[in-house]
Specification:
It is built from nine helices and twelve strands. With 281 residues, the chain is an alpha/beta fold. Strands 7-6-5-8-9-11-10-12 form an eight-stranded mixed sheet, with helices on both faces. It starts with a strand and ends in a 23-residue tail after the last helix.
């Protein structure tokens, strides 16, 4: 097998490349139009190297009984870092992955094969539309939903609204959580609006990221977690200790202050997130 491969997605014209990472021993990186999207160490799927992916992994570790199989739904595939992590740390889990580009998943599975025993099913198409085609048995049955949908460097407007999050809520079991990767820059205008929107759709919301980023000092990723029951307060010290460091979690009054005045986003008002280059001109 070749150690690297490149394709061009037919629908979008985006260039996709998978090959060795120059910094991580044994690591393989997925790049789309020269932007790193995922990093996988095939021999060690428990290693999560991207900052926000590590934070998501720690949240999954804390969910329910450690090591117990779960049902997970992933919107956005990347190199399947989180599905691999769940399969490794919670063997026997049932997982569904929605990805717009079948060619991307085919390349990932060719270059970075999944464990043969993994119960991971794939559905292709627009993330919002594909929800309608999920098995009815998943309604009210999903433990963890991971939203990591990007069109290039931006989050599409269709997965930013309260209507979208309400559609996700239908699939969550009691006590289930939804995690969303929110990319934003100085001012965090988009991230704050997502806090308000998640707060309107769910009972409890928290935001978890780098301390400096939450102060609006730079561009990066904020992991948001929401549920229809109160999020366990004992998660906070354990998440902060797990890192990556420096780390901060906003919840309750502190999160309300962070997002004060930010509007709830609807399908009518939704726009894509800002591109990173906007903040570096």
């Amino acid at each position: 097998m070749s150690i690297s491969k490149e394709i061009v997605l037919k629908e979008s014209g985006k260039r996709v490349w998978i090959g060795p990472d120059r910094y991580v021993d044994g690591g393989m990186v997925l790049e789309i139009d020269d932007t790193p999207q995922s990093l996988v160490v095939p021999e060690h799927p428990e290693e999560l190297h991207f900052e926000y992916v590590s934070r998501m992994g720690h949240l999954i570790d804390l969910y329910g009984e450690p090591g117990k199989a779960i049902t997970a739904l992933h919107l956005g595939a990347g190199a399947l870092s989180i599905p691999r992590y769940i399969e490794h740390t919670r063997p026997g889990s049932r997982q569904q992955v929605i990805e717009k580009y079948a060619e991307l998943v085919d390349l990932v599975r060719e270059m970075l094969p999944l464990p043969k025993q993994a119960s991971i099913r794939f559905r292709y198409g627009d993330a919002r539309e594909a929800l309608k085609n999920l098995p009815t048995g998943l309604r009210g049955a999903v433990d963890v939903i991971v939203v990591d949908v990007f069109d290039g460097a931006t989050t599409p407007a269709s997965v930013c609204s309260i209507e979208f999050y309400q559609e996700l809520a239908v699939f969550m079991k009691p006590g289930g959580i939804v995690m969303a990767n929110i990319a934003d820059g100085p001012g965090l205008r988009f991230a704050k609006s997502q806090v308000s929107t998640l707060g309107a759709a769910f009972k409890s919301v928290a935001a978890f990221s780098d301390t400096g980023l939450l102060k609006g000092h730079r561009y990066g990723n904020v992991v948001m977690v929401a549920g229809n029951e109160d999020l366990p307060v004992e998660w906070m010290p354990r998440l902060l200790a797990a890192g990556p460091h420096p780390a901060k979690m906003l919840i309750g009054a502190e999160l309300s202050k962070f997002a004060a005045g930010a509007p709830v986003i609807t399908d009518l008002s939704a726009v894509p997130s800002s591109e990173p280059k906007k903040f570096f001109l």
